[in-house]
Amino acid sequence: MIGKIINGVFQSIEKQTYEVDIKSYGLFALNEKLNNHIFRELLNFYDFEDARKLYVIASLRTMFSDIKNEHLKHEYDTNFISKIYPKCALSPNTISSFLEKIGKSSSKMEDFMNKRLEEFSNHSIVIDGMLKNNTSETNIFSEMSRKSRTKGAQNLNLIYAYDINAQEPVASSVYPGNMLDYTAFRDFLRTYKIKNGFLILDRGFDDKECKNLMREKNIKYLMPIKINHTFKKFNLKSGFNFTFTYDDDTIRAKKIIINNKYYLCYKSTLTEMVEKKNFISRAHKKGAYDEIKLLERENLFGLIIFECNYDLDLKDIYVAYKKRWEIELLFKQFKNVLEQNEANVQGNYRLLATEFINFFIFNYALQNKKPPLK
């Protein structure tokens, strides 16, 4: 039946369709301007439909940070992104199946990351690890970590590589939450083609095997070291003959060479004053001021020592490490965004695909919101 006659007038019963013809534009325009190169990069490794869906999901989760999978379709339909990237199926079941498919092909994700690392070769790269909550019981990555006792939650261990100059992540990988940072870093070095670069590391990556791998790949590295009794034997009182300024602070510096390794020593004038003041104040409040103990520690106030396997410029090293901390602050700023609605991602493959998308979200977020580095 195609219609009825009502009061002598034929009325078609064809069902009318209604399309969303008013779509939000501002957030999409900014995101597209800054990040659409990622879509082009994805096309080198994925077919058009999969590249489009990865880009669209990451873009929507960037624009609407607390969005759930069941709401993605609504935001897609009412956003201008659906005009530029049309016919993207985003029902919850479709998304789940899509993530499963993407996650099963981990080699494509690795190839994508390796291509980016190739483009950023010879740059200064920060390597950092992060524990992220995950309470799923159906993936192999969710494990009790060193922080689980205090936070009461299982974690994933994420390793990220960031380019200091471009101010964006270039590679990432997922590991079980109970895996030590340096163990994960060994696999990271073997998986990704980091060659002739300069890696700025944290203390957690201090490992002999990691250092051997970096030497084999001709990678320069820099990491802060714990000032233990061995270094207290060296002259840390004098010899700081090189000076420079950084952020209204005057830095004194010197190099110590031991067994073909360079130990770069820095004393911050401002930090030295603050640490000395705090030490004396704490001792005074406890009624335990001891000048001998003060003199024993005086050489360590404001001191930081880095280990490096190449002879590099003292000021350049210090500035590079300070930039590392600026990037880490940005990373912490967006950690909560990356954890939104993902604490219970089920299944190994879906989790891998979700973290692949999070890699783009972090990149997008940095491009959209980051302040310029100094």
UniProtKB/TrEMBL annotation:
Entries under SUPFAM superfamilies matching the protein: Ribonuclease H-like
Domain of life per record: Bacteria
Domain Transposase IS4-like: residue ranges: 149-338
InterPro entries: RNaseH-like_sf, Transposase_11
Protein name in the entry: ISMbov2
Pfam families: DDE_Tnp_1 (PF01609)
Biological processes annotated in GO: DNA transposition
GO MF entry, a single one: transposase activity
